[in-house]
Amino acid sequence: MTGPQRDRLAAAQAELLRALLAGGEPPAGFDRDRLRIEARALLNKRRGIVAALRPDLVEALGERFRPLFDDYARAHPRREGTRMRQDAAAFAEWAAARGELEPPRKRRWWQRRAT
Amino acid sequence: MERLGVGIGWRPEIDLTVERLPGVDFVEVVAENLRPDHLPESVVLLRERGVPVLPHAVSLSLGGADPVDPARVAHLGALAEVLDAPLVSDHVCFVRAGGLDSGHLMPVPRTREALDVLVANVRAAQADLPVPLALENVAALLDWPGGELTEGRFLAELVARTDCLLLVDVANLHANARNLGTDVDRFLDEIPLERLAYVHVAGGVEHQGVYHDTHAHAVRPEVLEVLARLRERVDPPGVLLERDDDYPADAELAAELAAIRAVVG
Predict the structure, then answer these.
(1) Residues of chain A with C-beta less than 8 angstroms from the C-beta of B141
(2) From the CB of residue B68, how many other CB atoms can be counted at a distance below 10 Å?
(3) Which of B38, B43, B90, B190 is an S-S bond match for B60, by CB 3.0 to 4.6 Å?
């Protein structure tokens, strides 16, 4: 019954989220400044949640946490069904792959350092 | 409508605070953070004391283009049953679209077409819920083009067509007045206040001319002023304070609850 309406709404909402989360073109009719403010607010919220879930990453990265997370987030908009904990873990992997973070240690707490 | 009184959002970070704060008549829990078969001890304690615990959902995406996810509705319904809650709630918003998750409550276009989809989704959710569903107005930083209805009319039509209850967030209303030019008095005149289940109050911050509904700052006087304008029209069955981050000392939360009580009397 609401098929065609759903399709049009789906396209409009997807276009808006692409613009806000994935660097998509600003949809027609929206205020550009407000799109920027909303995009920043969503990014701040996402970064804040990751920081709260993984204080170890905030500590390890220090001042680099914010710019690195923002680069990661823009390149990896959160997909439907991804939990925030997975998002935080994916960011840690991404940062480690770029050499910004030591990869998770295999060594256990009772083991001596190799050298 | 059931009398609820003055309440506060229960969060794991402030569980002890919520338990010992004086004058907490009811609480709300974020539905997605609780499992019906593993309720936090603190929530069980509050239920044992007879404090109503209302599940508040953030992920149904009722204003989204996709049909509602029956598993999310079932989870909300199961929580309502285990908590013996008089009602449940979510928002007039969408959170997912095109495979992406916004992580926040996004406003829907105020068009007849978007309203039709919202109505269909709300009816589907209601059909699977054991208790009434209340829907909340959200705070927006941006407005969709092509709006055909004021926010008040949009909500009034939603209630007329679904018989849902309303959860009016006065901080969100203040946000929309500040950010989008929503007329507070007109909004309050247009919505069916006899369907008001309860009210949300929250803190926020003003940044470069835009009000951000953060739930991490103190409640601003302008928000209490909106509550007062609502109170001129109706005696709300309940008013609940939401705080989600940067938790202050107990005394500060107690003072905010007292300020709310002073307004609604």
Answers:
(1) 34, 37-38, 41
(2) 21
(3) B90
pTM here? 0.94
Which residue from A7, A13, A35 is facing B64, i.e. has the nearest CB? A13
Fold topology of B5-264: TIM Barrel (3.20.20)
Does A85 lie at the interface with B, CB-CB under 8 angstroms? no
How many residues does this entry show for chain A?
115
What size, in residues, is chain B?
A: 265
* Phi, psi (degrees; rounded to nearest 5) at B219: -70, 125
Q: B105 CA to chain A: closest CA distance, Å?
A: 10
Token pair belonging to A105? 């240690």
Shortest distance, CA B169 to any CA of chain A (angstroms): 20
Each residue of A67-109: pLDDT tens digit? 999 999 999 999 999 999 999 999 999 999 999 988 765 556 5
Domain that holds residue A41: 36-97
Interface of A with B in 21-60 (CB under 8 A): 21-22, 28-31, 34-35, 37-38, 41-42, 45-46, 48-49, 52
Here the tokens at position B153 are 């009319």
pLDDT digits (tens, 9 = 90+) for B159-175: 999 999 999 999 999 99
How many domains does chain A fold into? 1
CB B204 within 8 A of CB B240: no
- Calculate how close chain A gets to B119, using CA atoms only, in Å: 10
The token duo for B230 is 């609502």
